[in-house]
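Predicting holo structure, alpha-L-arabinofuranose bound.
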Amino acid sequence: MVTMTPSSRRRFLAKLGGTGAMLASGSWLDAIGYAQGVRGSARALIQQPRVRADFDRRVLGAFLEHLGRAVYTGVYQPGSPLADSSGFRSDVAREVKEAGVPIVRYPGGNFVSGYNWLDGVGPKQQRPTVLERAWNSIETNQFGTNEFIDWCRMVGTEPLLGMNFGTGSAEMAVAYVEYSNYDRGTKWSDLRRSHGFEKPHNVRYWCLGNEMDGPWQIGQMQAREYGRKARDAARQMRVIDGNLQLIACGSSGTNMPQYLIWDREVLEECYDQVDGISLHAYYGNTPALTRNSTARYLAMNLDMDRQIREIAAVCDYVQGLRRSSKRLWLSFDEWNVWYRARSGDAVDGRRQVAPKLLEEVYNLEDALLVGGFVNTLLRNADRVRIGCIAQLVNVIAPLVTNDTGVLRQSTWFPYAWALRYARGRVLDLRVESDTYPITAAGLQADFARNDQVPFVDVVATLDVQAGQACVLMLNRDLDGERELALEWRDVAPTRVLACETLTGPDLKAFNTFEEPRRVAPQRLEPPAAGARMTFKLPARSYTVAQLATTT
Ligand code: AHR
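Done. C-alpha cells:
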C-alpha cells in the first residue's frame, strides 16, 4: 500500500478503530500446532505420515514490477557490459536461475492498473514512451510481455501475468489472454505471431487486477463492482483457454477498513469463475507496528499465519454459501518487509526513466523475519499455492544491482535456502517451545495483540523419494542460544548434508557493494544425524539443515 494523502489516511485510521480487538481473539500458538514448552529448550516431533501438504514450489515465487529500477537496470539493461544480446542482465539472470525461483509475477503491482499491454509488444522502435501514473515515472515500453516471457524461459521460471482492471476493460484483458495463449487464426493470436512469437506462451496463472480496493489504485472499485467485472472477464477467458488458473484480488492488507468484507463480497460475485484469491502484506519495525521492538517484529510472521487463516475462512464461508465443491487456494503474491523507503522521493518517480524507488536496505533482523515468512508460507502450503516475495530486484528486493554487479541483501539467504533445500512434502510438526509475551498497547489495530510467541519457529520438509529432509529454524531469542531437539519417528536422518546459520551481533547490520558479506551465512556445527538431534541455535538466528534420511 502506498501514497495516501494525509486526509485519506486520517479517514482510514478513523475507520479502523475497534477492528483490532475483534481480530485479536484466540492464541496463535494452537493455530500453528505449537504448545508451551519447558523453559529454555524446544522440541519438535517429526512423524513421516503427518503431512501438511505436498509442497508446490510456487509458494516461493517472486514479483517483478515496472517500478523504479526493477525492470530497467534490474533485469534489463541493453548496452551494459553485463547484459546479453537480448539486453538481459546476465548476473541477475544467473542468480535467479541458480536459486530456482519457480514463478514470477509481472508487470505489477500498482503499475498494471494503468498499463496498456499493447504498448509493450511489437517492434521496439514503434513502442510509445508514456507517462506512467502509479509511480509518476517515464515508461519506455522497451521491455514488455514477450521480453518477459523470453526472460522467464531463460531463467527457468514460470510467468504469472497481471491484468489491468483499473483503466483496462474486460475486453482488453480477454484480448491479452488471446494474444498470449491462443494458437493462431484470430486477431490477437495473429498479432503475436506477427511479433515473432509463433507458438503461444501458454501462461497458466493470471491475476485479475491488483489491489482494486486501495484508494491509491488507479481505477479503484467497490467490491461487488470488481467481483462482477472479474466474473465476466474470467468467463470469457475460459472460452479462450480452459487451462487457466485465475486469481481474484483480495484485500490489499489487514489494515484496510473493508478487510475480509471486501473478500467476502468479491467472492460472492465471482467464486465460481476464479481459482484463487490474492493476499498482500508488508511489515516493518516501526512505532505503530511494533513500538520498535525487535521481539515483536520477529513475531510478525505469525500475523501472516493469521491473515492466511482469516482469508481462508472467508473463502470457505463463501464456498458453503454457494454449495460449491470447489475449494479456493490462496495466492500470497506480495509479501515482504517494507517500511523505510515508503514515502516522499522513495515513491515518486519524478518523471524519470528507471528512477530509484522503494530501494529498501535490508538488515539482519529483516532477514530473520523473512525466514519467519518462509516458515509461515511453508506450513500453510496446504492452502497457499502461490507466494511472491515483493519484489525480486532493486525494488524492496533481496537482490540489488549497480553498473558493476549484483549484491545479495541479507534477505536473500533465507529465501534462497528454502528454494534450494525445501522439497517434497511439508511435515505437520508437533512443536513445544518456551514463549515470550507480546502486548497490544499502543499498536496499530491489526497488529495490536496480547499473546505468547514461541522462541523457536520450525518447519520441515521431506522428500521421501530422494531421501532428503530440510529443517528451517528461527530462533527469536535475542539474547541467548536455544536448543531444539528434533525427534524423528518412522524416518531418521542418516547424514547431515548442510547446516548453515544467519546470525550476528548487530541486528541492524546490512550488506553493501563495498562490504557484501557483513550479513552472510556461516557454517553451524550440526548434531550427529539420528533419531534425536539437538540443534544449538545461536541467539537471533535463522538456520537451515539439509539431511539425508532413511527412505
Ligand atoms: O510492491 C510495491 C507495491 O505495493 C505494489 O505496486 C502494490 O501492489 C503494493 O501496494
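The two ends are 46 Å apart (CA to CA).
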